[in-house]
Every structure is written in C-alpha cells, then in structure tokens.
C-alpha cells in the first residue's frame, strides 16, 4: 500500500516543524522541504497535499523566496499559511501590501461561510496572528472565508482549484481551533485516510539508515537519556553490530544510573549495541577539584567528555558515521531553522564532530519533538522508565552541587535525589511534574540529631512545571509528600541536616540549581 504524504514547503518561518507535527498528529506522514526544492521532485513524491509555511519576508520584494504558478495547478490541494498564503495570492494575481500596523498575537476571527476548513469551528474564535503584510485583494477565483478587525482577508479559498490560504497560524496552540482547521485540510480536503503510525516512522528510518550507511561503521555517544537511547536503538535495529556505542560514566550521574544504563544497553541487555562503558569518575573528580564556578564546571565536564570519547574512538579505529540524538527543539535552541540548517553539535555531546574522523552525522530524530521521540522509543520496545525519564543535563550532578564537586558531595546529592524521586513516584506525581530533583547547597548550618549537635549541609528540593523549559513555575507538591521526603533525607542521608523546597519560578530563577 502506498504511504500517504503531505509535503510542507519551508519558507523560513519559525513554526514549520509545528506544522509538520500537526499533520503527523492526524496520522499522516509529513516531510519538510526547502522552497528551493525543484517542483519535479515534489511531483515525484506524489503528495496528497502541500502546505506552504510562513516566513519572514515580503513576497512582493525582488529576492524573496517564491514558488512557481504551476505548484497551484497540479491538482494537489495547496494550503498557504501566513507568508505561504500571501505568496499564493501574489503568484496567482492577488495583491499583497504592507499593512498600517503589524497584527500580532491573539486575535478574534470571524468566519462567514461554509468553508470546509472551518467545519466544527464556531463562527467567532481566537487565532494567532503575526504579520506585517496583508492580502488586500484576493486572486481570481478566490473567495474570502474569514476576517478579523484589522485583516479583511484572514483566509480565502478557491475550492475548484483546491487552493486554500490562511493568514493566521493554525499550527500554534494559541489558535483555539487550529488543530481542527489543519485536520479539516488533511482529512477532508486532501482526503487522507490517516493510517500512518510511529511504527511507520521507525520502518522508514531503518530503511533510510541502511541505505545511507551501507556496510560502514557507526559510532554513537550514548548518555542513557531518552534521545540518545532512542537514536542508538534505532541504529542498532537498522545496522546491528556495525554500530558501537560509547557510554561515559562521569561519576555525576544519578544514583545507580550508570549500572542501570549498562543493564539495559550492555552485553547482558537485549540490544546489540557493542556497548562500551568508560568509568571515568576519578578523572572527572580530579579535574573538578577546587572548581566552584558553575560555567567553569560545565566547561571542564564538557571538555573531559570530549577527551574520553576521543580516546575511545581512537581505539575503535576508523568510523564512517557519527550518530547524534539531536531532536527538533535542539535545532531551534541553536537558532537553526530548516532553511539555514547546518549541523549542530548536540549540547550534551558538544564538540564531538571535531574529534572523530568521520564522513557524516546521522540524526534520525532531528525532525521530532520530545513526545514523538518517546513514542518512537516505545515503538522500539525501550522500557517505560527510560522512555519517560525526565530531562537530565549533560553536566549532570556537577551543576546540582553548589561549590566544589567531591565524591562525598556526589554521594549526598545522589542519595537525597533517589529518595525524592522514590517518594514522588509513590505519590503518583512522577508523570505530572515537568522536572524535579535534589540539589546540594553549599550551606552548612547547625542542627541537632539525637542528643548531638550537627553541622551539616542543606539539600534543596526543586520541582517545576513547564511547557517548554524556557519558563517554569514551582510545582505545588502536597505538603505531606514534602514532609516525608524531608524526614527520610534527614534520617537516611549522612551529612544532611536541613531540607528546603525551592519555590522560585523561571525567570528569575533557572530550572537547574547551580
Ligand atoms: P535551566 O537551568 O537553564 O534549564 O532553566 C533548562 C533545561 O535545560 C536543562 N539544562 C541542560 N541540559 N546541558 C544539558 O544537556 C546543560 O548544560 C544544561 N543546563 C540546563 C535543564 O535540566 C532543564 O531541563
């Protein structure tokens, strides 16, 4: 059976991956291509629909990204979003002009006739706008289907030729009925059946990886985090023992984490990863001796990682490909959109490309969001507790210990954190809190235990809820849970006599406690 495909044509907008994601949420496979992709190539793919994305340019300016008129005449339904909508009108003979004022943010929209795109959408709803230019005259054959106070044409369509233009952004969550609108396009206009699932993504990636790698050798830095684990297992399914995975235990992992990672991915586990564990704890502690400044710690940890990895890579000999678990938010964070894409060294394994002699980087998860990566992980049979693991920074506990890092302090924070995680899970809160962990403050204070005076450390508990990790609120953990955690930490972790709960939001705080 032929796979249904919707092609997203990238004009440099910031929400392009979100568009693709919304299509995938309709269980329809979706790929993003640059606007420079030849029309012939798009035709060959025989897509069920084509979506033109937003972009920062003005379509009437000479060197702006454009497309040919033929794109709209192939009988394939085209949906233009924002810049894509304006470009569609411009190319087909409508008029796009600079507006008096930029329309930005949540805006009230009214749709006025029975457009198939607005099926199930109330006559008035909120949409997300972000544009300077506006469509002042629609092209022949188009009918305006919605408007806002400042935008006479918020959407229009030429049903006969199957061309649809939307000025607002249905892909962002601020557009109340955005998902409905995109679903209407994918299912009712493009007539997709929606039978694609993540297993199809896995099959597709495996095929592509095999084709690319041939009989080459592949090296992967496995951290045990979700992204690199999923990438490694995907690679191992595709190319078996042509893959070697190096796991560096820097001694700054959570309690028992090194052994857990080894149990799943090592020789006793069920995957064929040529797993190499490097126990580099002592090296790291040595390098971190006397270092208190957080940025310096990060730097040292990062550099040491590269050194250890380099040594291992040398032992393996020539490799052809390097795998990275880069996911889409990493691409965004480093300011790289599809249109300006260059290879980014993932912040967890930063700098690796420079020290390993290889032909190419493989990033099989590059187009996916975190929850999609998790779906792939489940599809690959990776255990739940690894798939739903919370984010853990590359520098590990090194940045959850204020002041100098020592083996003793690592032990304290590991033990406290393990208790905290255990109690949060027992209380059934582990899947509801965005990120939570214990950190070791550098503060010691007087306490009394039994009949003795103590002078010990204070543990800080952190728990935040966040959508995008850019902003966050402290989670409101029930007091009895906090109380239990406090009591267990004080009783079970030697060297701690106070427990505090950090209620700072981000901003002004950060999520990590360093
Ligand atoms: P902050 O502390 O900046 O954290 O609010 C935001 C998110 O990023 C994670 N984080 C890191 N991840 N290397 C990483 O791989 C790092 O150096 C690093 N610093 C922070 C943090 O855990 C949170 O999820």
Automatic annotation (TrEMBL):
Residues the entry annotates as binding ATP: 223-229
Residues covered by the GMPS ATP-PPase domain: 196-389
Pfam assignment, any one: GATase
Record EC number: 6.3.5.2
Catalytic machinery residues: 82 (nucleophile), 169, 171
Entry GO CC: cytosol
Domain of life: Bacteria
Involved pathway(s): Purine metabolism; GMP biosynthesis; GMP from XMP (L-Gln route): step 1/1
Catalyzed chemical reaction(s): XMP + L-glutamine + ATP + H2O = GMP + L-glutamate + AMP + diphosphate + 2 H(+)
GO molecular function: ATP binding; GMP synthase activity
Matching SUPFAM superfamilies: Adenine nucleotide alpha hydrolases-like, Class I glutamine amidotransferase-like, GMP synthetase C-terminal dimerisation domain
Keyword match Ligase: yes
Keywords, sorted A to Z: ATP-binding, Glutamine amidotransferase, GMP biosynthesis, Ligase, Nucleotide-binding, Purine biosynthesis
UniProt entry tagged with the keyword Nucleotide-binding: yes
Subunit structure, as described in the record: Homodimer.
Function: Catalyzes the synthesis of GMP from XMP.
Protein name as it appears in the record: GMP synthase [glutamine-hydrolyzing]
Organism of provenance: Floccifex porci
Name of encoding gene: guaA
């Amino acid at each position: 059976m032929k796979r249904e495909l919707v092609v997203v044509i990238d004009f440099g907008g910031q929400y392009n991956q979100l568009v693709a994601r919304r299509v995938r949420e309709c269980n329809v496979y979706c790929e993003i291509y640059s606007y420079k992709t030849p029309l012939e190539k798009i035709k060959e793919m025989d897509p069920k629909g084509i979506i033109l994305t937003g972009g920062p340019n003005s379509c009437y300016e000479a060197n702006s990204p454009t497309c040919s008129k033929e794109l709209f005449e192939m009988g394939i339904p085209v949906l233009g979003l924002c810049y894509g909508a304006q470009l569609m009108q411009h190319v087909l003979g409508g008029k796009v002009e600079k507006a008096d004022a930029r329309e930005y943010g949540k805006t009230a929209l009214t749709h006025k006739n029975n457009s198939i795109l607005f099926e199930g959408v109330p006559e008035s709803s909120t949409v997300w706008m972000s544009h300077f230019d506006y469509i002042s005259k629609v092209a022949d054959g188009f009918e305006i289907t919605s408007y806002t106070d400042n935008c006479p044409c918020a959407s229009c369509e030429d049903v006969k030729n199957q061309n649809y233009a939307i000025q607002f952004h249905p892909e962002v969550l601020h557009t109340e009925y955005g998902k409905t609108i995109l679903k209407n396009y994918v299912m009712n206009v493009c007539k997709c059946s929606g039978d694609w699932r993540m297993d199809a993504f896995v099959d597709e990636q495996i095929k592509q990886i095999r084709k690319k790698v041939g009989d080459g050798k592949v090296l992967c830095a496995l951290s045990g985090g979700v992204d690199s684990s999923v990438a490694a297992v995907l690679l191992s399914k595709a190319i078996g023992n042509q893959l070697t995975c190096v796991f560096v235990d820097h001694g700054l992992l959570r309690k028992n984490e090194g052994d857990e990672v080894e149990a799943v991915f090592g020789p006793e586990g069920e995957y064929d990863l040529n797993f190499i564990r490097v126990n580099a704890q002592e090296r790291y502690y040595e390098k971190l001796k006397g270092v208190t400044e957080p940025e310096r710690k990060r730097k040292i940890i990062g550099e040491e990682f590269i050194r250890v990895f380099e040594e291992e890579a040398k032992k393996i000999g020539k490799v052809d490909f390097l795998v990275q678990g880069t996911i889409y938010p990493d691409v965004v964070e480093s300011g790289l959109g599809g249109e300006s894409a260059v290879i980014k060294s993932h912040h967890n394994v930063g700098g690796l490309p420079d020290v390993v002699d290889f032909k190419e980087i493989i990033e099989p998860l590059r187009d996916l969001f975190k929850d999609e990566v998790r779906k792939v992980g489940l599809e690959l049979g990776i255990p739940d507790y690894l798939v739903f693991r919370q984010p853990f920074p590359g520098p590990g506990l090194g940045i959850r210990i204020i002041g100098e890092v020592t083996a003793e302090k690592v032990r304290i924070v590991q033990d406290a954190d393990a208790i905290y995680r255990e109690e949060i899970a027992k209380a059934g809160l582990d899947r509801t809190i965005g990120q939570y962990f214990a950190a070791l403050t550098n503060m010691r204070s007087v306490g009394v235990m039994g009949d003795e005076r103590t002078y010990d450390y204070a543990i800080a508990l952190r728990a935040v809820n966040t959508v995008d990790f850019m902003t966050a609120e402290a989670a409101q953990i029930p007091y009895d849970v906090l109380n239990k955690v406090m009591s267990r930490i004080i009783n079970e972790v030697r060297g701690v006599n106070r427990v505090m709960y950090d209620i700072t939001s981000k901003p002004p705080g950060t999520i990590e406690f360093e």
